[in-house]
Design a protein that fits this description.
The chain is of the alpha+beta class. The protein is 37% helix and 22% strand. It is built from ten helices and 14 strands. The strands form four sheets. It has a five-stranded antiparallel β-sheet with strand order 2-1-5-4-3. A hairpin with a 6-residue loop joins strand 10 (285-287) and strand 11 (294-296).
């Protein structure tokens, strides 16, 4: 059986591996064992997440089927075998049609029990950077909240006066001047609408509860399928055993609607596809500032599309207000998504390359001491 994964026994190439290595299955770091032909003998759950493949799939292939043979990772594995000693390398890029990882740190060591076998540990530095950027956004969001409060107070009130004055002038103005009065009213309405959208960034307490994320996704899919994504193929790939998430149902709908709408606008209208998926992943934990507490975020919801991807220079500022590549866009959609995600103690990250963009939302589970009456919120 695969000693790294908690599955029923099955005939796999890892027979004979030492039982002492079973503890690796609990590690959040991806660990695999390669045999002398670089085929996968074993993989822990973190490695399955890293390669986005189950162990049963990995067991059928070799490393060269996942990454190009000129990758530095193969040189590292060869060094481990040649020197019969541990070897490390950093800042690796593992890229192929099936895999896209950058900033990877790799550590290989020989496994004496299996001649030619190598234990390989992989750490995705790019994921840590993305999580750091997401945490940094929480501070930026507080600045946006202050700006929203100022705009609401300092702009909306005098704006109402300007609009009212334009209405009064319209009643006694000439035909040409009436057109200008209407223009003033329209522009006042446009600015008011923009300010109201900015008010979404205000620091208001939100109510959270146990939410059935699959019912939320079904609601989002029905809205999209009857409206802005009616011409596209929407695929559902859900883990039916996923427990409820801890969050705000309305905000989760708003977050996912924004992500699906962005995906629908990015893909080819003729061949576009959007994939909604859920999964349980180990090892995603973040520290709470000023506390020793670490929040576990094991429940993952993904929105994937086959569009052209997001340009690299845009990704660095993707979550900031007023950043947009859309003609006529205001650049508040993803900034609002990031704010709502942070308010619920969750995280969101984006992986993008031509032909594949994935937004991954990592959510917490309900507290262990949640009263039975609050365990499921489906309405």
């Amino acid at each position: 059986m695969n000693i790294f994964t908690r599955r029923k026994p099955q005939p796999t190439p890892d027979a004979g591996l030492p039982d002492s290595m079973a503890v690796i299955s609990a590690l959040p770091v991806p660990v695999v064992v390669l045999d002398a032909e670089n085929r996968f003998c074993s993989a822990n759950p973190a490695a399955e997440q890293f390669f986005q493949l189950s162990f049963s799939s990995l067991a059928q292939i070799s490393l060269k089927e996942l990454i190009p043979e000129d990758s530095r990772l193969f040189a590292l594995v060869d060094q481990v075998r040649g020197q019969d000693a541990p070897v490390s390398d950093h800042d690796l890029t593992l890229e192929s049609p099936r895999l896209h990882r950058t900033g990877v740190a790799a550590h290989g060591a020989p496994l004496p029990e299996l001649p030619g076998a190598v234990v390989l540990t992989l750490q995705d530095g790019s994921k840590a950077q993305k999580l750091d950027r997401q945490l940094n956004f929480r501070g930026a969001a507080r600045g946006a909240s202050a700006m929203a409060a100022m705009l609401a107070h300092e702009v909306k009130n005098p704006l109402s006066g300007i609009r009212g004055a334009a209405q009064l002038l319209e009643q006694s103005a000439s035909e040409d001047d009436r057109e200008l009065c209407v223009l003033i009213q329209d522009e006042a309405d446009r600015i008011r609408n923009l300010v109201e959208r900015m008010e979404m960034f205000s620091d208001r307490p939100i109510e959270q509860g146990a939410v059935n994320i699959h019912e939320v996704l079904d609601h989002v899919r029905r809205i999209a399928g009857r409206g802005f994504a009616s011409h596209l193929r929407i695929v559902e790939d859900y883990d039916p055993s996923l427990p409820p998430v801890w969050g705000n149902r309305d905000f989760l709908i708003q977050i996912l609607l924004n992500l699906v709408k962005n995906a629908a606008e990015a893909v080819d209208p003729q061949n576009g596809e959007i994939v909604l998926s859920t999964a349980y992943h180990h090892g995603v934990r973040i520290a709470v500032p000023g506390s020793k507490e670490r929040v576990h975020l094991p429940l993952q919801v993904s929105v994937r599309d086959n569009g052209p991807g997001i340009e690299e220079d845009v990704r660095a500022t993707l979550w900031e207000p007023f950043v947009t590549t859309k003609q006529g866009g205001q650049g508040l959609g993803l900034a609002m998504v990031a704010k709502l995600v942070a308010d619920q103690g969750a995280l969101i990250e984006c992986d993008s390359r031509p032909g594949r963009t994935v937004f991954r939302l990592s959510l917490p589970m309900p507290p262990a001491d949640l009263p039975a009456s609050l365990e499921t919120r489906t309405e």
